[in-house]
Amino acid sequence: MWSYILKRLLLMIPTLLGVLTITFLVIQFVPGGPVEQMVSQLQGRNAVGESGGAGGGAYRGRQGVDAKRIEEIRALYGFDKPPLERYTQMIGQFARFDLGKSFFHNKPVWQLIKEKLPVSISLGLWSFFLTYLISVPLGITKAVRAGSRFDTGTTFIVLLGFAIPSFVMGVLLLVLLGGGSFVQWFPLRGLTSANWETLSLGGRILDYLWHITLPVISMTLGSFAVITLMTKNSVLEEIRKQYVMTARAKGLSERTVLWRHVFRNALIPIMTGFPAAFVGAFFSGSLLIETLFSLDGLGRLSYESVMRRDYPVVLGSLFLFTLIGLITTLIRDLSYLWVDPRVKYE
């Protein structure tokens, strides 16, 4: 197993290099980079003209930026160096886990990610726990009562939630419960209230839960269907196997058969994805939900970085999230060994 782990760790290196190389090459051909944006701002500033005074001046249109100033701007953002040198420098920084410094925020990328993490962790962890705490028991109940009205009704509900996009559900909840057209039981924006610092500990907890309710509901409803139906199908598959019939023939109660035999085997596909989903919850980000509820998380950071051509943030966050994704995939594969000792990696 250790050789398998070492092999997977070594394979992460070319995967990371491939992702970063492709992204770096694409960036070289994307118009509207930071240099062009700065030049446009300078031109716009000069476009005002020198028409002040008592009517003596005249509008002189958009003024150009001299070549020396453009070279200074290129040197400021590091674009005065050849692409190969910039690429080598970037790989060297990432090898030291130095994600660089943002062009526009004037902050290290690590600091930006840390500032946005509370929102993403709040959305991700609450969605993760609610999904598993509700979907797994619901899936088991649906399997035990397969074909009943309860099974049919809950299937319709979870599939309806899955069919409605999260941002549409968010808009609907704001209209119904956020003061849109009916009642205002929940706030429209933010993770906490403006007076959060003056509240007591209990008041802060209640204020936080009050703000996070609608965003979490919007993100979670679509996840119920996948885990619920996966759990149901896995339990039904185990119930039909020969060892269950043998256990029943020995006189074991249905409760014993379900929890001591079926449950342990049926949840192997669910539990193997648990570690990866848990780690991924810390770095999950939803642009539409964060924008809709005015939450400043990783989703908005990534989108704004792409739109503003903030390349250090784009490449740094891409490197970090790709590395986390590769590690969580390895953890998921290894969890098969921990849950089911019969699995062997050669």
Automatic annotation (TrEMBL):
Highest rank taxon of the organism: Bacteria
Domain ABC transmembrane type-1: 117-332
Gene3D superfamilies xref list: MetI-like
Residue stretches spanning the membrane: 9-30, 123-144, 156-188, 208-231, 266-293, 313-331
SUPFAM superfamilies given in the database record: MetI-like
Name listed for the protein in its UniProt record: ABC transporter permease subunit
Pfam families assigned: BPD_transp_1
Origin species: Uliginosibacterium flavum
Keyword Transport: yes
InterPro entries: MetI-like, MetI-like_sf
PROSITE patterns given in the database record: ABC_TM1
Keywords: Cell membrane, Membrane, Transmembrane, Transmembrane helix, Transport
Similarity remark: Belongs to the binding-protein-dependent transport system permease family.
Record's keyword annotation contains DNA-binding: no
Membrane topology, from the record: Multi-pass membrane protein
Compartments, record wording: Cell membrane
Stored CDD domains: TM_PBP2
